[in-house]
Amino acid sequence: MTGQNVMGSDAKTLQDNTCRSPIGTRRRVRARRTIDGPERESVAIERSGRRVFKTTSVDMGASKVTVESVNQAVVRAEYAVRGPIVAKAREIEQELAECAKNGKPSPYGFDKVVYCNIGNPQQLGQKPMTFFRQVSAALDWEGLTQNGACAAFPSDVLTRVKNLRENISGGTGAYSESKGVRCLREAVAKGITARDGFEANVDDIYLTDGASAGCHYLMNVLIRDDTDAVLCPIPQYPLYSAALTLYGGTLVPYYMDEETGWSLNLDHLKKQTEDARAAGKNVRALVVINPGNPTGNLLSDENLLEIAQFCADEGIIIISDEVYQENIYAEGKTFKSMRKVVFEAGLDSRVPLASFHSISKGYYGECGRRGGFMELVGAWDAGVVEQILKLASIALCPNLVGQVTTSLVMDPPVEGEPSYELYAKERDDILSSLARRAKKLVSTLNTLEGVVCQEAQGAMYAFPNLTFPQKYLDECTAAGKVADAEYCTRLLLKTGIVTVPGSGFGQKPGTWHFRTTFLPSEEDIETVTVQLCDFHREFMAQYK
Fold it and tell me: Residue 144: what pLDDT?
């Protein structure tokens, strides 16, 4: 095995832990190292009979692991969706649980913490899809064929399970191919083809543990040092900024235009790219999040084509995050994948495209099952694709439960099959309810003083713009606090509602926002909106 000499080229190193003495007996060598300074070490030789011990002293304090001595890229990485406000919420939740257990009243003005900080549908009461869970349960049930157990499942569920058992070698408890089980990738390819009208190749598809794994594969391969840069929309999902920090790259922001419903301004994108290159940055990729997170916008077909053409002209990889593609609420709007845009425009020979999808969102919300896929199409260098596969191989394989669920998401029951009617009803009920909740929340936010919220056309979030009183801003500046983070902290302490400050996603300088989901049930969303409005009115009155 080869590797970097971590002791440095000037250090005295011991190449073997055993060697032959001049008279043919075994000689063992033990090393202990003391570092009084970067270049100093003491070496003592101990002799005992014919055995020779070489000892290098080590200062244990110098090798002690502290937060100052670990990888500082990890220390610098931030992920606001589960940041300090969420940590405080967990503390409060535990405190409330202890009070309830001991029969004590809540020390707060509420008795429940409501997590509106993250798109985690089932945590907030969304029911899983029956068909998906039936297939998963039957697949893992060893007693399925005994004592009439099959009668508990519709015939199309049993057909799926039979096919899966025949094609998943070793079952869901065994490792699969690093890209994922082939028959499951074939189901994903079938769904992509049906969605876009352009045939998908099973070999272009990598099943992943959620969409995040695909992001890490790409950043790990693309980023060599901080001269390598990735264009990211601002506001952005902080997975991308965190990954760039971890791998040592540079984020080049392109700001979405809030006043026009978070649309893209192509001239601004071009200027950001030109400025980055003038500063010595190698712009390697562009991230597009559609539907938007945290903004809830849906990019126009025109914007999508502009992005594709720009990246093809500039030699930039497209990374298209499409995990909310089922979550479209705006009347008359539909989702169009970047893949379809690229193929329709005939750009697939000129631009590499990586697309992500996940089972965590949509109407399924299977966050804990950690499933999704990455598809690589277009003008990828074959050697680069080999390196991405290498990373997938190092991870062995994505979890099998997530793989199976991903295949079902992309290849669900169709009309005429026994499970279709219930599946369609559950899907439509969830999506129509989300649309009502989105409209309710956004319309309520827009009644508040100093608040302007763009329509939530898709995804699971509202991202209101807050105009804070100058007195409050001065107070935050004097206290060294970030204004929107302080607002969200006070909201939590007053109401138990957990949100994420806009500063955690990035925002235009001088603007303030917060992100909230509209995932609480229709009954609970009424309470959430009332509490939020009451808090905001009291907050504004305090600074009159």
Answer: 76
Cβ–Cβ contacts within 10 Å for residue 169, how many? 10
Residues in Cβ contact with 149 at an 8 Å cutoff, skipping those fewer than 6 apart: 141, 143
Contacts of 480 (CB under 8 A, 6+ apart): none
Q: What is the pLDDT of residue 398?
A: 94
Q: What is the pLDDT of residue 67?
A: 87
N-terminal to C-terminal alpha carbon distance within the chain = 69
Domains of the chain (ranges, CATH numbers): 1-64 (no CATH), 78-125+431-542 (3.90.1150.10), 192-326+335-410 (3.40.640.10)
Three-state SS for 287?
Answer: strand
Beta bridge partners of 135: none
DSSP readout, 448-482? Answer: STTEE-----BTTEE--EE---HHHHHHHHHHT--
Cα distances (Å, whole numbers) of residue 41 to 37, 45, 69, 342, 414? 8, 13, 20, 60, 72
pLDDT for the residue numbered 48: 44
- What is the rounded CA–CA span in Å between residue 490 and residue 89? 11
User: In 10 A of CB 55, how many CB atoms?
Assistant: 16
Q: Are 196 and 343 in contact (CB under 8 A)?
A: yes
**Dihedrals φ, ψ of 287, to 5°?**
-95, 130
Model confidence over 89-118: pLDDT tens digits? 999 999 999 898 888 888 888 899 999 988
CA gap 380, 254 in Å, rounded = 24
Report residues of the chain scoring pLDDT below 50: 1-49
Contact status, residue 43 vs residue 12, Cβ threshold 8 Å: yes
pTM value is 0.85
Of 387, 460, 463, which Cα lies nearest the Cα of 222?
A: 387
